[in-house]
Design brief:
mainly alpha, single chain, about 60 residues, two-stranded parallel ribbon
């Protein structure tokens, strides 16, 4: 099992850096289990809202 952080989730969800997003997707796909902590989810939502302008319904 691996644990992912906010940076990985943001890259994957926003695709703002194609190379990093692709590497993140490969990493997650090859693992049987991926751990995402509550604080990582909260911080990811905050980053998506404040830095990328996502609306709440888009984040959900």
């Amino acid at each position: 099992m691996i644990a992912v952080d906010t940076n990985l989730l943001v890259r994957l969800l926003t695709q703002d850096d194609a190379q990093q997003a692709q590497r993140t997707a490969k990493l997650i796909k090859r693992e049987a289990q991926v751990f995402v902590g509550k604080t990582v989810l909260l911080e990811t939502a905050w980053v998506l809202r404040s830095a990328y302008g996502f609306e709440s319904y888009e984040i959900v």
